């Protein structure tokens, strides 16, 4: 019994499974085709890329576009900026919204109800809605064209507080009360009992904050014009689009901006899917 | 820094709760709760509440981008906005985009989730394929489709053997943006549906099978009703996100408002007034109008949810 059995118990290929799998493959191919097109374009020379009619595979495979991307542009700068901004935003959001979510869910303080109402109202506000006044506020603080100006306004997401608030409400009070009886204080309970229990929620919030921040275009676009400070999406959209688009280079840059998250997804797929389910349930 | 402040506050808190441990039901740490929410509230006040108040104030002035010499002009900005054909046009474009995207994305996400849920092999692969586009930055996804839609050198026209001037003709430009958005964002709603499908208890289907219900009946009478809540969520999130469409529209149109201004979205209009015409007062008034619209949608959803809960009771 304990010896390894090499034969896996495979599910049978019923006709309906065959049809579904074929259908799934066809739809997936349609979804992936644009990625393939980007990759193949980036491996063509600039002149071959704009040939009419287009063809999928490069006739001459060349790394010219990738090489030019690294030699001429400031794409490495943008990449570093993107990493720095996303990591900072994610850490601050995780810390601040976990504390606030717990505060709203489990502690009492004066003015809690109206403040919670205010946070709920904040769910409706985004840089897209309030871009211009947000910009003038940041301008007044002297943070235009700085990292601070790019990072801090992304660090007050009411939605994340709300998700964690919902989650903390679901933790059984008995767990905390047992610790209180043993003489632990609020902060100790928070850090040693509540936080370890909420790892899946924190992972979800962290992953989504990171994705949102890495992909954020609108706010960095508003707050900086300095090519040295730009993030990937921003630099690609503005600088690389500004003088006669070189498609092969543009596709190479786009892949470089998009691939890190796709690789992260491949590795953390389980957590991300659980995270989406989680956020979905909180918002339901 | 946070570690030290946490420690300094921990010590007295511990002493107090230890003394009070006999009366646990009392609200614990009455004055400490404030410290938990303080850091968030500080950021929230600075970057959400203050800009909102400031926007409301600026909307009553003729402020320009420098922020100096703004005069109070009452409701003039609002009067002008309500008469501005550009505002109504851009609002119409965003609304049209929303009307196109929301039903399509909801149905497509549901179908993809059903597909991925029912194929027994390689679940991770289908998930990855359908979700991957969502992981691209908006500008990258937009550039990619601008390239695909390009007449002559692009793949769309070549594959389908057509010669549609996607990005340069008024009647196709918004459609092109809708198609790009479907491909790019359907993955998120797809994952929500997939999670909801996996959450439906299997014994419901088994019971139905014993009662002789066929696959169609099982879907109509079990799957669809069980997905009602998640559909409400998907639709609400999509409406709110679609009304705020900006990135893909500007990037696909090279930062211009599209052929004959046909893809100028509401957000784009606000930013044009604020950062191109430097009319911060006027742009703030438009932003406030936009905020009211978004808030109305969000409140309508809350109201619907409450009604449903009450009728369920």
Low confidence ranges of chain B: 1-30
What count of domains describes the coordinates of chain B?
Answer: 1
Residue share in β-strands of chain A = under 5%
State the secondary-structure class of chain B. mainly alpha
Helix-strand topology string of chain B: HHHHHHHHHHHHHH
Task: Tell me which oligomeric state these chains represent.
Answer: heterodimer
Number of helices of chain A: 15
Can you say what the CATH homologous superfamily of the domain at 85-226 and 273-283 in chain A is? MetI-like
**Which regions of chain A contain 5 or more consecutive residues with pLDDT less than 50?**
1-5
Query: What is the C-alpha radius of gyration of chain B, as a whole number of Å?
Result: 26 Å
What is the name of the CATH class of chain B? Mainly Alpha
Largest sheet of chain A, if any? none
Which of globular, elongated, flat, extended, rod-shaped describes the shape of chain A? globular
Helical percent range of chain A? Answer: over 70%
Helix content of chain B: over 70%
> Per CATH, what is the topology of the domain at 85-226 and 273-283 in chain A?
MetI-like fold
Task: Walk me through what this model shows.
The complex is a heterodimer of chains A (284) and B (313). In chain A, 73% of the residues lie in helices and 0% in strands. Chain A has helices at 15-42, 46-49, 64-72, 75-106, 112-122, 127-140, 147-151, 158-170, 173-181, 186-197, 199-215, 218-223, 232-242, 247-267, 269-283. The longest helix of chain A has 32 residues, at 75-106. By secondary structure, chain B is mainly α. Chain B has one domain (79-312): MetI-like (MetI-like fold), CATH 1.10.3720. Chain B is 73% helix and 0% strand. Chain B has helices spanning 2-19, 33-58, 76-83, 85-118, 123-131, 138-149, 155-160, 170-198, 202-210, 215-226, 228-243, 247-252, 266-276, 280-312. In chain B, helix 4 (85-118) packs across helix 13 (266-276) and helix 6 packs across helix 8. Chain B is globular, with a radius of gyration of 26 Å. At the A-B interface, helix 1, helix 4, helix 5, helix 6 and helix 9 of A face helix 1, helix 2, helix 4, helix 5 and helix 6 of B.
């Amino acid at each position: 019994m304990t010896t390894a059995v090499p034969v896996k118990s495979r599910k049978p290929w019923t006709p309906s499974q065959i049809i579904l799998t074929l259908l799934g493959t066809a739809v997936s191919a349609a979804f992936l085709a644009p990625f393939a097109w980007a990759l193949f374009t980036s491996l063509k020379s600039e002149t071959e890329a704009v040939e009419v009619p287009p063809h999928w595979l490069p006739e001459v495979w060349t790394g010219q576009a990738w090489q030019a991307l690294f030699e001429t542009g400031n794409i490495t700068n943008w990449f570093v900026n993107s990493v720095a901004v996303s990591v900072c935003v994610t850490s601050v959001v995780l810390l601040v919204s976990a504390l606030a979510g717990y505060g709203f869910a489990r502690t009492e303080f004066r003015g809690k109800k109206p403040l919670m109402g205010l946070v709920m109202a904040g769910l409706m506000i985004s840089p897209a809605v309030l871009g211009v006044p947000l910009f003038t506020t940041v301008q007044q603080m002297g943070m235009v064209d700085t990292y601070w100006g790019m990072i801090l306004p992304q660090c007050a997401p009411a939605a994340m507080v709300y998700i964690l608030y919902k989650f903390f409400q679901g933790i059984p009070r008995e767990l905390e009360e047992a610790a209180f009886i043993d003489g632990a204080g609020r902060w100790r309970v928070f850090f040693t009992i509540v936080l370890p229990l909420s790892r899946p929620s924190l992972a979800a919030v962290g992953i989504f904050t990171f994705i949102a921040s890495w992909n954020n275009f609108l706010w960095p676009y508003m707050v900086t014009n300095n090519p040295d400070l730009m993030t990937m999406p921003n630099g690609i959209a503005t600088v690389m689009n500004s003088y006669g688009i070189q498609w092969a280079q543009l596709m190479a840059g786009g892949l470089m901006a998009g691939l890190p998250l796709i690789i992260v997804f491949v590795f953390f797929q389980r957590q991300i899917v659980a995270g989406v389910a989680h956020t979905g349930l909180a918002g339901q | 820094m946070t570690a030290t402040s946490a420690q300094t506050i921990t010590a007295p808190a511990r002493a107090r709760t230890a003394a009070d441990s006999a009366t646990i039901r009392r609200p614990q740490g009455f004055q400490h709760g404030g410290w938990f929410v303080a850091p968030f509230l500080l950021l929230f006040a600075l970057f959400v509440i203050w800009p909102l108040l400031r926007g409301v104030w600026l909307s009553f002035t003729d402020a320009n981008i420098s922020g100096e010499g703004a005069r109070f002009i009452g409701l003039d900005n609002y009067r002008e906005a309500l008469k501005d054909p550009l505002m109504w046009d851009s609002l119409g474009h965003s609304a049209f985009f929303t009307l196109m995207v929301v039903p399509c994305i909801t149905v497509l996400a549901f179908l993809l989730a059903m597909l991925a849920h029912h194929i027994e092999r390689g679940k991770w692969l289908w998930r990855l394929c359908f979700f991957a586009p969502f992981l691209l930055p908006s500008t990258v996804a937009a550039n990619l489709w601008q390239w695909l839609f390009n007449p002559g050198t692009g793949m769309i026209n070549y594959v389908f053997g057509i010669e549609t001037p996607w990005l340069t003709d008024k009647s196709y430009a918004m459609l092109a943006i809708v198609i790009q958005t479907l491909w790019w964002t359907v993955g998120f709603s797809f994952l929500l549906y997939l999670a909801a499908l996996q959450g439906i208890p299997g014994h419901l289907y088994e019971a139905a099978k014993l009662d002789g219900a066929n696959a169609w009946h099982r879907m109509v009478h079990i799957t669809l009703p069980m997905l009602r809540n998640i559909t409400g969520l998907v639709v609400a999130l999509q409406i709110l996100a679609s009304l705020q469409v900006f990135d893909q529209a500007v990037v696909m149109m090279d930062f211009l408002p599209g052929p004959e201004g046909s893809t100028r979205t509401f957000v784009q209009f606000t930013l044009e007034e604020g950062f191109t015409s430097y009319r911060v007062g006027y742009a703030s008034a438009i932003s406030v109008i936009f905020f009211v619209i978004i808030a109305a949608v969000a409140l309508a959803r809350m109201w619907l949810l409450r009604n449903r809960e009450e009728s369920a009771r």
